[in-house]
Amino acid sequence: MMRGALRLLGWALVAGLALCPRGCRANCPEKKLQEREEEANIVLTGTVEEILNMDPVHNTYSCKVRVWRYLKGKTMVKGHLLLDGGNKVMIGGFGDPDICDNQVATGDTRIFFVSLAPEYMWPMHKNELMLNSSLMRITLRNLEEVELCVEGEPSPKAQTYFAVGVE
């Protein structure tokens, strides 16, 4: 009886892992913040205002984002990318399984690591910015760490030392 229950449990576990899409696995390797900042041409803070352009084939979508602040790359965001009077942009790539934290809802305010959409993604994503890596929640610590990366300074977290046995 016990052996049959264990066998059933084992098969259920195997089936669950096989049927689980890549995004539902607990392990999602994320690059270091410095690498993420360097790969992104533009880093900005903003609020998702509208979710648009669902791609049923790739299960990705784009969002209209109200920009609050550019931390990097403001000069790259020119007229053709700006929407609704210049304070909004379109960002694509949400739902991309290669990006760990890639889901948003209307009203979410985040730090976005983005780049201009490459030409091979045109015309569907022309005049869009594309998500490079995971979104970051807006906290004072996150803002400070991203700003330090943009400025090329090491994070204070990386410079913390603990003296052992010092009185």
TrEMBL record:
SUPFAM superfamilies: TIMP-like (SSF50242). Residues 1-26 form the signal peptide. One of its GO terms (cellular component) is plasma membrane. GO terms for molecular function: laminin binding. GO terms for biological process: receptor clustering. PROSITE patterns: NTA. Disulfide bonds join C28-C100. Gene3D superfamilies: 2.40.50.120. Residues 28-158 form the NtA domain. Pfam families: NtA. InterPro entries: NtA_dom, TIMP-like_OB-fold. Keywords: Disulfide bond, Signal. It comes from the Eukaryota. This is NtA domain-containing protein. The lineage of its organism: Eukaryota, Metazoa, Chordata, Craniata, Vertebrata.
